[in-house]
Amino acid sequence: MKNEIIVEGIELKWNSESGEVLFEGGDVVFFWVSAMKTFFDSIREISGDEATNLVLETTGFRQGVIVAEGFRDTKNINASNIVEWISNTYVSAGWGKVEIVEMDEEIQHFTLHIQNDWEYKLNKLDGKQTEGIFVPSHYAGVFSSLFGKDFWYEIKQYQNDNQPYSIVEYFPSTITVQKNIHELSRRQEADKIKQLEQLVDKNTKVLQNLVKELSSPIIPVLEGIIVVPMIGSYDEERAEDLITKTLEHLPKHQANYLLLDLTGLTKQLTEHTAEMIDKLSIAARLLGTEVILVGVSPELALLISQTLTNLKKFECLRSLQHGIYYALGKSGRRIV
Q1: In 3-state terms, what secondary structure has residue 317?
Q2: pLDDT value at residue 215
Q3: CB proximity list for 139: less than 8 A, separation 6 or greater
Q4: Helix (H, G, I), strand (E, B), or coil: what is residue 11?
Q5: Cβ atoms within 10 Å, residue 316
Q6: Dihedral sign, CA of 304, 307, 308, 314?
Q7: Integer angstrom CA distances of residue 278 from 275, 283, 286, 292, 310
Q8: What is the domain count for the chain?
Q9: How far is it, in rounded angstroms, from Cα 39 to Cα 320?
């Protein structure tokens, strides 16, 4: 069964046998506003507000470009018939009433009143008073296609319970949907980088605290003798932490001898670390504790004799065991 009507000069045809609906000879599909709401709500739920708004804006614009191409092929382009094309076509298609109320042909500036468009109805189902995105950008695409240059829009007023229509201005602009997509990608990339930086900072602080807890522990081995293993490199903060922590424990353990184990510093004993050891030794001596260096490898011995000469004044022993025996001997004790 075939049916045909003409609304405002626009031809609509239905063919129930083939399942086709034709709008000015082109295939169309009708949707309930509530169904469209479900569609857009699903996109927003998955993609988030910012990405969804850009999708709506970009899609509306590009659809406008396609629609206007059909008019451009069949009609003469001039400002006077744009009103007729838009009003007749979109009213009959359920896109609401559109009226161009101001028009400056010289600068190609247009002001539209858009009333009861489907996007307004969709937002109203949720009780939202938000600005439309798809429909306003759609007309920017229409103007861009008709005049062969980039048009953009600015919503001056949105239809609500107190205002019967939206007021949207259109004008030539350097803004494009491609630029908007690129800017969103850059913003999202910057946000992701910022999140990663925050995560790195957080984990770095956790790691630093862990290093402080685990590195250079204070180990009492025998009465009056404690050992501090030195591991890795020491920046200013870690060096100060080692000195402070060690000096605090010397009186607690009544330490007469502090054995600094350099085994873990074979390739990382720098001048800065040597100065730290010297500083710790001076402070420990004031507390009545002698510092002995143990774990001195042949490589370290050569380094101390040639470069780090300020460490030559310390008693240096090859192993921790030798250091313990040495400290016991100086205190008049021995292991039996």
Answers
A1: coil
A2: 62
A3: 64, 86, 98, 112, 114, 153, 168, 170
A4: strand
A5: 19
A6: positive
A7: 5, 9, 13, 11, 8
A8: 3
A9: 73
Q: Which of 116, 143, 175 is the last residue of a domain?
A: 175
Question: Which CATH number do you get for residue 249?
Answer: 3.30.750.24
Query: Based on the domain organization, do 127 and 48 belong to the same domain?
Result: yes
CA distance 193 to 187: 10
- Asked if residue 197 is part of any domain, the answer here is no
Counting every residue, how long is the chain? 336
Residue 23 β-bridge partners: 12, 26
Predicted pLDDT at 72 = 63
Integer Cα distance of 86 and 71 in angstroms: 10
pTM for this prediction: 0.56
Minimum mean pLDDT among 11-25, 99-113, 201-215, 305-319: which range? 201-215
CA-to-CA separations, 262 to 212, 245, 278, 298, in angstroms, rounded:
17, 18, 14, 12
* 111 and 80 co-located in one domain: yes
Work out the burial of residue 269: count CB atoms within 10 Å of its CB; fewer than 13 is exposed, 13-18 middle, 19 or more buried.
buried
pLDDT in tens, 181-195: 888 778 877 777 788
SS3 of residue 197 by DSSP: helix
The amino acid at residue 58 is T
**Residue 287 pLDDT class (50, 70, 90 cuts):** very high
Is residue 195, in this structure, part of any structural domain at all? Answer: no
Residues spanned by the domain of 9: 1-30
Which pLDDT belongs to residue 288? 93
Cα dist. 92→5, 6, 58, 61, 117 in Å?
A: 11, 9, 24, 20, 12
Same domain, residue pair 68 and 116: yes
Give, rounded to a whole angstrom, the gap between the first and last alpha carbons of the chain.
114
Closest CA to 97 of 83, 76, 78: 83
Summarize the confidence of residues 216-230 as an average pLDDT.
Answer: 87
